[in-house]
Amino acid sequence: MGWEMEVILGGLGFAFFLLLWGILPHRIYQVRRSNGDGAISSPHQVEALRVEAEGVKAEANRVVRIPSVRSPVGLSVDDRLFHLRVLPHSSRNGGPWGVLEGQIGGWGFRVPVFFEQVRIDGTLRERYRARIWGCRCEATAIPDFREQAEDVFRALEYADRLPPYALQRSEPHDSALIPIYPWGEGWRVHEPDGPILEAMDLGTLRQRVADAYGLPVGAVQVRVLSEELAWVPPVAVFRPMEGSIFYLPVAWSGTSWRLHLAGAPLSAPGDGAGIWSLWKVVAARGLERGWLRVPEDLVLEVWSAAAWEVLTSAMPEAIAGLRFYATGPQLRAVLLPVYRREDGWVAVYTEEDRWTVFMGRDPADLRQRVGEALCAAGCLADPQALRLEMKRMGKPSHAECALPDLGR
Amino acid sequence: MHGWRRRVVIALIITVLTAIALHSPALAQGSGPESEAVEAAKEELGRAINFAWTLIAAFLVFFMQAGFAMVEAGFSRAKNVVAVLTKNLMDAMIGGLAFWAFGFALMFGGSGLAPGLERGTPLIGLSGFFLAGSAYHDQTAMLWFFQMVFAATAATIVSGAMAERTRTTAYLAYSFLISALIYPIYGHWVWGGGWLGNLSAYLPFLGEGVGARDFAGSGVVHAVGGFVALVGAAMVGPRLGRFNRDGTPNVIPGHSLTLVTLGTFILFFGWFGFNPGSTLAATDLRIAMIAVNTFLAGAAGAVVAIYFGFFRTGQLDLALACNGALAGLVGITAPCAYVAPWAAVLIGGIAALVMIGASAFVERVLRVDDVVGASAVHGFAGLWGLLAVGIFADGTYGGVRGLIMGEWAQLVAQLVSILTVTAWSLGTGFLVFWLIRSTIGLRVSSEEERIGLDLTEHGAEAYPSGRRLPVEVM
């Protein structure tokens, strides 16, 4: 091979490697990023639902609206600064003494900090305490309190997110809480030293967590954040008629109904109309994403008597009923009251401590849906056995046959 | 004349006279007893250099145990690191002892490669047990040490695949059996004068002198270890949470990519003893080309792997790059002495692709939980290395010629060795693990697995954990 050929080959080789390592990776990077591939979705990138009508708002978690005054005491977690502010009229007897506020991944939060005087080892000591996402922080000195709070945030935060939901494991000696993080439009659980478990819906995720920990699914329960940032059982859950995709727990505090949908928080006023507003938004998103075929596929289950009372306050009087006869030691009639709303017909299946709300386009559609659900649960042998009676007959009765329990 | 100038002149004169003396025709040609003594001295010097080289190479290969330990620890969770490190340490120790007692004799008896290794059959060796008798010889010891570190390498491959849920006592029992029986018997067939290395005696149509070639052990070490690892991982079952009910896999991240990378570098470094050291002679200057081929294949494997991952996901996957480098190194291990540098690049790159495809196959089709990807990196890439000999060998070393030289016989011999090593490793691995599972048990309990093997099996933590934060549930 002559020297000219070697030079040419060397030049070609140089060009090849320049392409391979200089140009091509950058082009691939640009293409992937423009397609949205390979990027971890963050709350910033998830489309926030902005439905202003009917009082449904997308907003960050907020605990207490307290104006900030005086210079803050800074907490530093991974180069982010959180502020511990003393309130201008801070209370040393019961009310909040200060507020811990900051932002993680677009989530603003304000946590009330309380001051109290307690007797420790016979000595009267001052103590600062707060509950941060269910974790109790308390210390007799502000620097110690700050350190604890920093540890909590470090442990809670995952990929610039804070958990809106959690799973509680009910084991004899351990009721550990497993935070759930929004991940794209689904959910992710990633405990230290644990597998990464992901699912589009919380029902599937719950099953996978139970399997990973070797527990029956009933031993793993969903928890939501209350306005006080404590972990509480949800008062209700949106779910589809069939399956558990699109399983959405709902928190209620009296002032608002709150849930997370596709990585974005949603809230509505805590009155009876608020939950119906949420229903519309959730159904619309479900249709958009293909989780629901029709809006009436969405079912609401209410697990709290107090929340149920509030919900029924916004419902008109029942004008009809669906009746079937449940077999058992005695034949007894079960009546589901039927209500007419402007956007459809509603039937309620009442159990001991659970109210399942079905929607239908019209009475026949509602009857069909309820019949199929009761059939699937084994409460009815034949959907046609459910009879629609246009005049209400007696009070709604508690059923003894339970529909499938998805989350409690 | 000043003192220092005088010294310089004297030194120059001495140097010139010495040079003349060394290049004197009388010295160069030599005659009589003096030249015989010089030749003998040169031969002895060469022998000593080869001894030293082989032993130093063996030390490098032994250091690969640290590399394996780091890689496996890095891919494991923090709660199981002590268990992983214990397995890595002890399988080298137990494996070494087993190889001393039985393995070496079964592997090299009958090869005649060193004193005391005269007796054996094409299937099994029968001399050299305990390095006793006539095997108690410096040359035999050198050969034993070099081969022992290879045996320890094969044994330790399995620990990564079965990490995080395998009982340590069961694993130690396996370590003994693979080093005493599984590895040496197959090794005898290829390196110890057995039937695979002399395939033409049984398949005359291949032509004279043709046999399965595996220069440094893609098959003997890596494929054996990799497929025994696959069987072991399959029989011990997946970790909790690794697969969902519908069979879809979940990722269980390791705790330290720092350790994985460090381990990869250590392995890469040790491979320069693994491959060039297999010449058993520093006077064989082919060691330079072998080292070059080794590096090029490892580098190509890393580049292809990271590129593949980047193209697929848009992200540069460090773990994939490390495994790609290792796959490239495994792939070149068999053909390293027989191929040209351009072929080494190709072999390494293809080995990475083989590894990636095999990983997906093992995870999604076989649904086997291989913590570190050992079966893909060592098993399947090892098979590719064996095949590569039959394709890319260019006849410049040892007369081994492959398909690119128009010879098909070597390819056939390599295919026979591929089938043999796969069947042998899977079969004997299954027997060993079935035996262990039926007797002492293979897997820890679910509770022990959730707590972590460090505390339950070893009573120690690699990273002592801090206080758990109290969480209130209303």
Textual characterization of the structure:
The complex is a heterodimer of chains A (408) and B (474). Chain A is an alpha+beta fold and 408 residues long. Chain A has helices at 3-34, 142-156, 202-212, 272-289, 305-313, 363-376; strands spanning 73-77, 80-86, 96-104, 107-120, 123-132, 135-139, 165-169, 177-183, 186-190, 196-199, 220-225, 231-232, 236-240, 248-252, 256-261, 264-269, 298-302, 320-326, 332-341, 344-350, 355-360, 387-389. In chain A, the strands form three sheets. In chain A, strands 16-15-14-13-17-21-20-19-18-22 form a ten-stranded antiparallel β-sheet. A six-stranded antiparallel β-sheet of chain A has the order 1-2-3-4-5-6, with helices on one face. A six-stranded antiparallel β-sheet of chain A has the order 10-9-8-7-11-12, with helices on one face. The longest helix of chain A has 32 residues, at 3-34. Chain A is globular. Mean pLDDT of chain A is 76; it is low at 37-73. By secondary structure, chain B is an all-alpha fold. Helices cover 66% and strands 0% of the residues of chain B. Chain B has 15 helices and no strands. Chain B has helices at residues 3-22, 25-29, 33-75, 81-108, 138-161, 168-191, 218-236, 257-274, 286-313, 318-333, 341-365, 374-392, 409-439, 446-451, 453-458. In chain B, helix 6 (168-191) packs antiparallel against helix 13. The chains are: A alpha+beta (408), B mainly alpha (474). At the A-B interface, helix 1, helix 2, strand 10, helix 3 and strand 12 of A face helix 9 and helix 14 of B.
